[in-house]
Amino acid sequence: MATIDAEPQPITVDLARTALVIIDMQRDFLEPGGFGETLGNDISLLAAAVAPCQAVLAAARAAGMLVIHTREGHRPDLSDAPKAKVERGEPSLRIGAEGPMGRILVRGEPGHDIIAALAPAPGEPVIDKPGKGAFYQTDLELMLRNRGVDTLLVCGVTTEVCVNTTVREANDRGYRCVVLDDCCASYFPEFHDYGLKMIKAQGGIFGWVSSSRAAIAAIAATQA
Fold this sequence. Notes:
Blueprint: E1 2-4, E2 11-13, E3 18-23, H1 27-30, H2 35-38, H3 50-62, E4 66-72, H4 83-87, E5 98-99, E6 102-103, E7 126-129, H5 140-146, E8 151-157, H6 159-172, E9 176-185, H7 189-204, E10 208-210, H8 212-223
Parallel strand pairs: 3-4, 3-8, 4-7, 8-9, 9-10
Antiparallel strand pairs: 1-2, 5-6
Helix pairs in contact: 3-8, 6-7
């Protein structure tokens, strides 16, 4: 058992029943020419989450924890991309359009890949999701149930969109979620802050908020 210092209160977890979920750390969101930049965002703001994610990922792997990565993207024919999503906003390149890293947010294209710094290791599941939440139209819940997982350590981008959506989906399914604040980031710093506040408000209405350092310390304590 490991006790993680968190808000609104510390949480004790069984690492054998805990999964590290790293959400959408993809080139399309973090690198020049990807979907994030086509929307006019400052992609450099997401870089802050990379090193903390690397540190937690290394600790989780060393402890033998289940590690799951997610990627948002669509089939090449866009049959799983709602028209409302494709047409929304005014990006310089829409989903499916040809960009510097291949077609935007399309599975199998270079931009859809997870960044090299956080590349999945052999045997680590990768969930390809068509929406914001990692449970929607995926087999994530089946994977977690098969492994007896009841707690998720959540990292990734962006805090207020895919991270928050996944945490809310997980909460409704009975999972305990611990969001690692410095392992998450947003194109809008104020959204990052409020996204975390919403999760831990009212006694942890959606989950707990902690940090990479606290999670790593808790994991290390079980290995001593």
